Amino acid sequence: MTTDSAPRATFSHMEHGTRDDWAAISAEFVPFARALPERVLAHLLLLDGDCGGFPIDRLAHSLQTATLAHRDGRDEEYVVCALLHDIGDTLGSFNHPDIAAAILKPFVSAENLWMVEKHGIFQGYYFFHHLGLDRNLREQYRSQPDLFDRTAEFCAKYDGAAFMADYDNLPLSFFEPMVRRVLATPRNSIYVKDGEPAMAKAE
């Protein structure tokens, strides 16, 4: 976090920014970016106690989804996607998968990103018809069989199944190191060059 005594840029329009300005900004950006996992974990805790009519609260559902995936042998990146798939519920009431996908996009594979981004449509197979919606909206993606099957499986085995009130979820502390590792190294961002954040290279 920027302190009053830390150097700051002096421009009033980015057009007039100098190398020194961007060095000051970069010096703040690097530690701020490194703390992203802590902010994500803190935001995930906002789901605690929020049931929204579901059998268990949203944090328990997230933990249960990740626990099921972990115990089924899924790799660390997949498990983190499972943990964070509904983190957007607080700010994206009408598009929560997009929020989770935006957070994860710099750090995960294209397949895992697609799965997170589309899981809301695929999950709808189980309940959209009760709301007067088309439960088969996921069929629009049938032409991408690998991604379709991956996301349908995620919903069937983990996301859709993670509402058991008596299941022994692993605690958030178990997943915290995974979150820190997965969110440590961005690989898909306009701010990354040669596998390293460009800000880290600013002189």
Chain-wise SSE layout:
Layout: H1 19-34, H2 36-44, H3 58-71, H4 76-84, H5 96-104, H6 110-123, H7 145-159, H8 172-182, E1 192-193, E2 196-197
Antiparallel strand pairs: 1-2
Structure description:
- The protein is mostly helical.
- Helices cover 48% and strands 2% of the residues.
- α3 (58-71) packs antiparallel against α4 (76-84) and α3 packs across α7 (145-159).
- The longest helix has 16 residues, at 19-34.
Q: What ranges have pLDDT less than 50 throughout 5 or more consecutive residues?
A: none
Name the strands of the widest sheet in spatial order.
1-2
Q: What is the mean pLDDT?
A: 93
How far apart are the first and last residues' alpha carbons, in Å?
Answer: 20 Å
Count of alpha/pi helices? 8
> Helix content range of the residues, please?
40-55%
Key traits:
mainly alpha, elongated, 203 residues
Short description:
By secondary structure, the chain is mainly alpha-helical. The chain has helices at residues 19-34, 36-44, 58-71, 76-84, 96-104, 110-123, 145-159, 172-182; strands at residues 192-193, 196-197.
